[in-house]
C-alpha cells in the first residue's frame, strides 16, 4: 500500500532498486529535457541525461556525459544568461533563464532552463538538476511578428525592386563562380545551370534546363540517400553538406563529385528554390591518396635502417671503454637521444598511415585504469623534472581496451601540456567516474588555444599558427589520440582560453563500450 507521510511518498513493499528504476523510467518518459550534474566534481560534469535531452540537443548520451552543460552554447559565450547560471551554481540557488543553445549539427535553438540545487541530509549541495524545454517555436513566433510589422511599413515598389536586384545578383554569381551550380525548383526541376556546369559535364543548356535532376545524363544523381537529403532542405532548412558521388559520368568518365545544397533565401516568386553546388574532387582525392601512400612507404622504408642505426649506437654505448673522455660519452648519448626522437616520429607517421588505411589494430584486455594512469604519470615525472604532475581523483574501474594505445594518448596529452606551458610548471590530472564512463582531464596554464583553432586541433597535420614557429612538430599527435579514443568508443575534447591554458579531457566507456545509451 502506498502511503504519504511527512511530505514524502513511500512505496511500501517495493525495494529501493524498484523505486530507482521507476524514477529513471519516469524521467525518461518526460517530454522535458532533464540533466543532473555532480557538484562534488570539478566543473560540475553531467552525470545523467534523459532521452528528451538527447532529442532536444541532438547529441548522444556518450557525447554528453562528463561535459559541463555550457558546451551547448559553443562559441556564443557573451550571453547574460550564462553568468546568471554561473552565479546561481556558485551561490547554491535555483534559477530560471532563457538561453541560446546549439544542436550538434549547429542549429540554433532557444532553451528555457529551470535549475535547482539538490542537498544531502546535512544541507550540503551535492548535485544540480536542470529541466529544459525547447522554446524555439515561441521565440521564432515573436521574431516573426516583429519582422512582419517592419515589412508592412515598406512600400510595394521598394520590395519589388529588391526582389529584382536579388534575382540579378544571384544570376551573376551563378554564372561567374568557378564551380558547377544548378538552381532547382521544389520539385527538383532544373531552373538554371551556370556555364561551368555545362563545360564540366559537356552538355548544353537545352539538355539541362527544364529537366528533372534525377533524369540528367544517365540518371547519375538518382541516388536514394541524396533524394532523402534533398527532400529535407525546404521544410527543415537543413542543407546537404559534402555528399560524395562517385560515378561513370557521360562524356567525362569516372569522377568523384562533392555535392552541397542549400535553400535559396529569397521572397516572392523566387522563394523555395535550391542551390546545388557540384565540385569535382577527383584529382584532389587522388593527390591525398598518393600522399598517404608516400607517407606509408617512406615510414616503412625509414624504419628498417633506423632500427639498425639504433642497434649500432646501443652497441657502441656498451663498448665504450673507461678511458673514453666525457665529451665522447656525451656526444654518443646525444646521438642516441635524437635517434630515439626520430624513431618516435616515424612510429607516429606509421600510426597515421594505419589509421588512414583502416588497419589500426586494438588488442583489448581488462586492466586497472587508475594504475595505468598513475604509472604513466610517474614515468613522465622522472623524464620531465622541469614540471610537477599532480594527480587527483580515481575511477576504481577495470577498463577493457588496448592499454598500450591508451598510454600513448596520456603520454601525448602530458607532453603537450609540458611543451605549451614553458612558464607554468604545474600540470594537473584529474580522474573521475561519470555514470558508466571514466573521465580523464589534463590541465595546464600555458599558452591556451583560440576558439577558432580549437575546432581544428584534432585534424591531421594541423598546427596552431602563432606557436608553430616556436614549438617544432608535425601536428599528428592529437589526431592519433582522437582516433584511438574514437576506436575505444570514447570522446576527446578541449576547453581553453587564449593565454590562460587548456584542459584536454576524454571519456571511455567502462566495459569496453558495452553501453546501452540509456
UniProtKB/TrEMBL annotation:
Known InterPro entries for this protein? BphY/WalK/GraS-like, HATPase_C_sf, HATPase_dom, His_kinase_dom, HisK_dim/P_dom, HisK_dim/P_sf, PAC, PAS
Classify the protein's membrane topology as the record does: Multi-pass membrane protein
Q: Organism's domain of life?
A: Bacteria
Show where the Histidine kinase domain sits. Answer: 297-512
Q: Which Gene3D superfamilies match?
A: 1.10.287.130, Histidine kinase-like ATPase, C-terminal domain, PAS domain
Instruction: Give the reactions, separated by semicolons, that this protein catalyses.
Output: ATP + protein L-histidine = ADP + protein N-phospho-L-histidine
Q: Taking every annotated instance into account, which residue ranges of this chain make up the domain PAC?
A: 95-147
Q: Which NCBIfam families match?
A: sensory_box
The entry's protein name is: histidine kinase
Q: Which species expresses this protein natively?
A: Pedobacter rhodius
Amino acid at each position: 500500500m502506498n502511503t504519504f507521510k511527512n511530505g514524502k511518498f513511500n512505496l511500501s513493499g517495493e525495494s529501493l532498486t524498484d523505486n530507482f528504476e521507476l524514477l529513471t523510467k519516469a524521467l525518461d518518459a518526460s517530454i522535458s529535457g532533464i540533466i543532473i550534474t555532480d557538484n562534488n566534481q570539478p566543473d560540475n560534469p553531467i552525470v545523467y541525461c534523459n532521452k528528451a535531452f538527447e532529442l532536444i540537443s541532438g547529441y548522444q548520451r556518450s557525447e554528453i556525459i562528463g561535459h559541463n552543460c555550457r558546451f551547448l552554447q559553443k562559441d556564443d559565450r557573451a550571453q547574460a544568461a550564462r553568468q546568471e547560471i554561473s552565479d546561481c551554481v556558485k551561490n547554491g540557488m535555483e534559477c530560471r533563464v532563457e538561453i541560446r543553445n546549439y544542436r550538434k549539427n549547429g542549429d540554433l535553438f532557444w532553451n528555457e532552463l529551470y535549475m535547482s540545487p539538490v542537498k544531502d541530509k546535512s544541507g550540503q549541495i551535492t548535485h544540480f538538476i536542470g529541466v529544459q524545454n525547447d522554446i524555439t517555436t515561441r521565440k521564432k513566433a515573436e521574431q516573426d511578428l516583429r519582422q512582419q510589422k517592419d515589412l508592412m511599413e515598406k512600400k510595394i515598389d521598394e520590395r519589388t525592386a529588391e526582389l529584382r536586384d536579388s534575382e540579378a545578383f544571384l544570376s551573376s554569381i551563378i554564372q561567374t563562380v568557378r564551380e558547377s551550380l544548378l538552381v532547382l525548383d521544389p520539385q527538383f526541376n532544373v531552373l538554371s545551370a551556370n556555364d561551368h556546369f555545362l563545360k564540366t559535364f559537356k552538355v548544353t543548356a537545352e539538355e539541362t534546363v527544364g529537366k528533372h535532376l534525377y533524369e540528367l545524363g544517365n540518371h547519375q544523381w538518382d541516388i536514394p540517400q541524396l533524394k532523402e537529403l534533398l527532400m529535407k532542405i525546404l521544410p527543415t532548412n537543413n542543407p546537404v553538406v559534402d555528399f560524395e558521388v562517385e560515378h561513370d559520368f557521360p562524356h567525362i568518365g569516372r569522377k568523384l563529385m562533392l555535392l552541397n545544397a542549400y535553400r535559396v533565401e529569397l521572397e516572392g516568386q523566387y522563394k523555395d528554390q535550391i542551390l546545388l553546388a557540384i565540385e569535382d574532387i577527383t584529382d584532389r582525392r587522388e593527390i591525398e591518396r598518393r600522399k598517404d601512400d608516400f607517407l606509408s612507404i617512406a615510414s616503412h622504408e625509414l624504419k628498417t635502417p633506423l632500427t639498425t642505426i639504433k642497434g649500432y649506437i646501443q652497441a657502441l654505448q656498451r663498448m665504450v671503454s673507461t678511458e673514453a673522455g666525457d665529451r665522447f660519452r656525451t656526444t654518443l648519448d646525444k646521438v642516441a637521444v635524437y635517434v630515439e626522437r626520430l624513431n618516435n616520429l616515424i612510429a607516429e607517421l606509421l600510426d597515421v598511415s594505419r589509421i588512414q588505411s583502416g588497419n589500426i589494430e586494438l588488442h583489448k584486455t581488462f586492466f586497472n585504469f587508475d594504475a595505468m594512469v598513475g604509472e604513466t604519470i610517474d614515468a613522465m615525472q622522472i623524464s620531465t623534472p622541469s614540471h610537477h604532475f599532480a594527480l587527483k581523483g580515481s575511477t576504481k574501474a577495470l577498463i577493457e581496451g588496448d592499454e598500450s594505445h591508451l598510454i600513448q594518448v596520456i603520454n601525448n596529452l602530458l607532453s603537450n601540456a609540458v611543451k605549451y606551458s614553458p612558464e607554468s610548471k604545474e600540470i594537473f590530472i584529474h580522474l573521475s567516474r561519470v555514470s558508466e564512463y571514466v573521465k580523464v582531464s589534463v590541465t595546464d596554464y600555458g599558452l591556451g588555444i583560440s576558439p577558432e583553432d580549437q575546432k581544428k586541433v584534432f585534424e591531421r597535420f594541423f598546427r596552431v599558427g602563432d606557436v608553430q614557429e616556436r614549438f617544432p612538430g608535425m601536428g599528428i599527435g592529437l589526431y592519433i589520440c582522437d582516433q584511438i579514443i574514437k576506436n575505444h568508443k570514447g570522446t576527446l575534447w578541449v576547453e581553453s582560453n587564449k593565454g590562460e591554458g587548456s584542459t584536454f579531457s576524454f571519456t571511455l566507456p567502462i566495459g569496453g563500450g558495452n553501453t546501452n545509451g540509456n
